[in-house]
């Protein structure tokens, strides 16, 4: 299926690995030109080279930290007319909220709420003027089903969710959509890192913990990042213009509610 976005340009945050990279792959496969952002130059360039080789895509890289003012300026300077914006930030530390300081909260709010909010502010009017825009925020399934120990993640991302809902309604008439993708447990390096720490605490192998995790998910497995990327690409497509202000939960059926 041709998604109708060949030749569009996407600004993709956290694109060197994990779910950001999966989104970049899926968009490249549709003929989208990419501007990839990440903090580490070596992994970013490796990802860019791989995408160019596999898809023949046009790829520009910007090594920057989008949680800073200068990082966002560098990103938008390299891609001042994006048709697609994928916001994505690394998850903050987990733990008991009693142990977090105000500085911890300020950093979490800046990274997971204010940074994507600012990128949206800097790009959405241009999308409106050009008559096409797709904004996807990668958040977390914890927004839908809060998890013990994830307060630093859930709180700021709920703020971003509310902000996105407001913006989505205000720009919909300009063929600009704003949606959130809520990943559950996917087979990424971050997941392996988190599970590795848990496995050491439990005195078991990561493989055994992955198996246990899978047993808590109706799909009986962790998510494949390519599945996430494909969902992102569809929401960015020419056919998704009537889908906006939504939160798509991708957790293999783990969330027990109906809505």
TrEMBL record:
SUPFAM superfamilies, per the entry: NAD(P)-binding Rossmann-fold domains
Q: Which InterPro entries does the UniProt record give?
A: NAD(P)-bd_dom_sf (IPR036291), SDR (IPR050259), SDR_fam (IPR002347)
Q: Read off the Gene3D superfamilies from this record.
A: NAD(P)-binding Rossmann-like Domain
Domain of life here? Bacteria
Stored Pfam families: adh_short_C2
| Similarity comment: family membership | Belongs to the short-chain dehydrogenases/reductases (SDR) family.
Task: Check the record and name the PANTHER family matching this protein.
Answer: 3-OXOACYL-(ACYL-CARRIER-PROTEIN) REDUCTASE (PTHR42879), NADPH-DEPENDENT REDUCTASE BACG (PTHR42879:SF6)
Q: What is this protein called?
A: Oxidoreductase
* Species in which this protein is naturally found: Dyella nitratireducens
């Amino acid at each position: 299926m041709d998604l109708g976005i060949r030749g569009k340009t996407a600004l993709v945050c956290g694109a060197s690995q994990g779910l950001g990279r999966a989104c970049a792959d899926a968009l490249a496969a549709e003929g989208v030109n990419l501007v990839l952002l990440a903090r580490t130059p070596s992994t970013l360039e490796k990802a860019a080279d791989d995408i160019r080789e596999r898809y023949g895509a046009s790829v520009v890289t910007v090594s920057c930290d989008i949680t800073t003012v200068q990082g966002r300026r560098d990103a938008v300077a390299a891609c001042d007319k994006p048709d697609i914006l994928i916001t994505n930030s690394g998850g903050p530390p987990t733990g008991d909220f009693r142990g977090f300081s105000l500085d911890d909260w300020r950093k979490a709010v800046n990274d997971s709420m204010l940074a994507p909010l600012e990128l949206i502010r800097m790009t959405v009017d241009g999308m409106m003027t050009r008559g096409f825009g797709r904004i996807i925020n990668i958040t977390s399934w914890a927004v839908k089903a809060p998890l013990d120990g994830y307060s630093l993640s859930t709180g700021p991302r709920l703020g971003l969710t509310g902000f996105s809902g407001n913006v989505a309604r205000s720009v919909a008439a300009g063929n600009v959509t704003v949606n959130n993708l809520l990943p559950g447990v996917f087979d990424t390096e971050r997941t392996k890192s988190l599970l590795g720490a848990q496995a050491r605490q439990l005195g078991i192998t990561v493989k055994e913990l992955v198996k246990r995790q899978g047993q808590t998910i109706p799909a009986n497995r962790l998510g494949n990042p390519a599945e996430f990327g494909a969902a992102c690409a569809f929401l960015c497509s020419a056919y998704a213009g009537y889908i906006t202000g939504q939160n798509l939960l991708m957790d293999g059926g783990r969330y027990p509610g109906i809505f």
